[in-house]
């Protein structure tokens, strides 16, 4: 069966994601929705999409759409996701899932209540190199895992009108960059019991950079950094009692990993992604929806909630007040 997709929010990320549908034979993009008819039409023309909708409500009523890929600004995810679930549309929501723990829990609760599939579009977890990393950790390749280190930063010196500095659009390093190292650490180590953060806010009240230390009751830890003002390597490292695994830059979309076992030569494992790297998460959602499943075991809602809780704690410690959008369209 072909799973029919609709795109909500035809922006920069959606442009890249849609190109990878050519690599997923059981998935097809059949509709796109935007608040701008012109923007929806131009996007549809560029990508050969058959139908356009002006406004988000219209695509919810489209009987030919099975799944919605939600790529609007972060604060708008909540309303679109909740409305989509109530309309019976499966959803893949671009990271960060929302800008608050409350909104993320609302969406997860709605999905579980209705049985409608929902997943965060955290593409990193589906890359073949990351899948292999998780297999190696499960097999004890580096012994007992004790810590994670990860950073992601860009030198994005923009004016005050840029989206990355706009609180009403979910601006700041936290929701666009820090979400990656936080999710990576949570994937490896689980939900932390200690969260400590320091950083800097810009004149618009969004975070420009942060350093985050996560801790677990047994002493495991994660040291994470993100920045909109400083370029960083974008590397990650998982350290265990018998070695470590290096994820070279950029760790959130890697094509290889390096396994370092104590007493052995380093082993490079090369596993390129398909297409632009988005095909793997598209294939995951397509397969789960076709099978009538409610969640992905690779990116379950419980993990998304745990990551969102860390981001909420970081925002609070930095003094940032995220501007969550309304709960209804």
UniProtKB/TrEMBL annotation:
<dbReference type="InterPro" id="IPR055170">
    <property type="entry name" value="GFO_IDH_MocA-like_dom"/>
</dbReference>
<protein>
    <submittedName>
        <fullName>1,5-anhydro-D-fructose reductase</fullName>
        <ecNumber>1.1.1.292</ecNumber>
    </submittedName>
</protein>
<keyword id="KW-0560">Oxidoreductase</keyword>
<dbReference type="InterPro" id="IPR050984">
    <property type="entry name" value="Gfo/Idh/MocA_domain"/>
</dbReference>
<dbReference type="Pfam" id="PF22725">
    <property type="entry name" value="GFO_IDH_MocA_C3"/>
</dbReference>
<dbReference type="GO" id="GO:0000166">
    <property type="term" value="F:nucleotide binding"/>
</dbReference>
<dbReference type="InterPro" id="IPR000683">
    <property type="entry name" value="Gfo/Idh/MocA-like_OxRdtase_N"/>
</dbReference>
<feature type="domain" description="GFO/IDH/MocA-like oxidoreductase">
    <location>
        <begin position="131"/>
        <end position="246"/>
    </location>
</feature>
<dbReference type="GO" id="GO:0033712">
    <property type="term" value="F:1,5-anhydro-D-fructose reductase (1,5-anhydro-D-mannitol-forming) activity"/>
</dbReference>
<dbReference type="InterPro" id="IPR036291">
    <property type="entry name" value="NAD(P)-bd_dom_sf"/>
</dbReference>
<feature type="domain" description="Gfo/Idh/MocA-like oxidoreductase N-terminal">
    <location>
        <begin position="3"/>
        <end position="119"/>
    </location>
</feature>
<dbReference type="Pfam" id="PF01408">
    <property type="entry name" value="GFO_IDH_MocA"/>
</dbReference>
<comment type="similarity">
    <text>Belongs to the Gfo/Idh/MocA family.</text>
</comment>
